[in-house]
Amino acid sequence: MTTSNTPTLTITRPDDWHLHLRDNDALVRTVYDTARYFGRAIIMPNLRPPVTTTEMAQAYYQRILGAKPQGSVFEPLMTLYLTDNTSADEIIRAKESGIVQGVKLYPAGATTNSDAGVTNLQHCRDALEAMQKVGMPLLVHGEVTDSDIDVFDREKVFIERILSPLLRQFPELKVVFEHITTENAVQFVNASHDKVAATITPHHLLLNRNDMLVGGIRPHHYCLPVLKRNTHQQALIRAATSGHRKFFLGTDSAPHAQHTKETSCGCAGIYSAHAAIELYAEVFESVGALDKLEAFASFNGADFYGLPRNQDSITLTKQSWQVPESYPFAESALVPMRAGEHIHWKVIAD
Ligand SMILES: NC(=O)N[C@@H](CC(=O)O)C(=O)O
Ligand SMILES: [Zn+2]
Ligand SMILES: [Zn+2]
Record-annotated residues binding Zn(2+) 1 (predicted)? Predict the structure, then answer.
């Protein structure tokens, strides 16, 4: 990494370890934005129907490649959607395919398109054992869904009731605690063994629940896990900017058409792929930790997954630009993070 008196920053090409590309007509937008400077991305499987088999992952992989801009070297890393019925054989097939890098746990009903998710992890013992054996990481949406648990407490309770027992039962299983949002999760990951890591989104670093609820309700800041109070935000910033190898970049960029967010019962998800690395750069700069951005964005994730680090680089410069109010998105429109406002870093060369 190089920094100089001119406000530019060159880092090894980053990867996105948690991304929703959606499918079909949406891919033109989403693949374009991410492929602009990310080398690879872990592609979430919560389509309708979900990507539950290696065969489905292979077909989805081809659709993504078909949407790639010419000359792009972007590589999608596929995942399977864990269900109560995922077999050990399916895990072996996934591993042997060479294109599947993780298996995603959505507690049933926890988030967008999670109805087919897991009702009880004990139903997944065979799959989890196979994953542990072949070194296939489990990626978790870490929230309980019990109706009596407050939405702001669901991550913390997930750690106590689900994640801790899971790690005791499968001590060799690689686990990525996705899109962590609380100080509790930071502490848990720090205290766990080396096979446990976490992704952190740009929105949980840049926003807290006041940004969603003060001065009017802002549906474009609604995501899951829901934004938390500022003390949690500060704990996430400390973790991300620490350089610690357990924490890495995962945008959770999750597009929803404008009319499905600006409505009486809006969808959860924030779109950040149009400006992800620039948004992270703002966070790191705000705490004087730009020198730690490369580890978070370009090294820690690849090292955890056991994949080679990218060899080429991208350069950012400190230059303000205005984000469009919306982008065309399939038959509709998409309101991105910071819509109509300015971002203070820009990728200038890749
Ligand atoms: N994060 C979100 O708010 N939404 C994601 C699902 C998820 O990652 O939980 C989506 O697919 O829309
Ligand atoms: Zn999730
Ligand atoms: Zn997600």
Answer: 18, 20, 104, 252
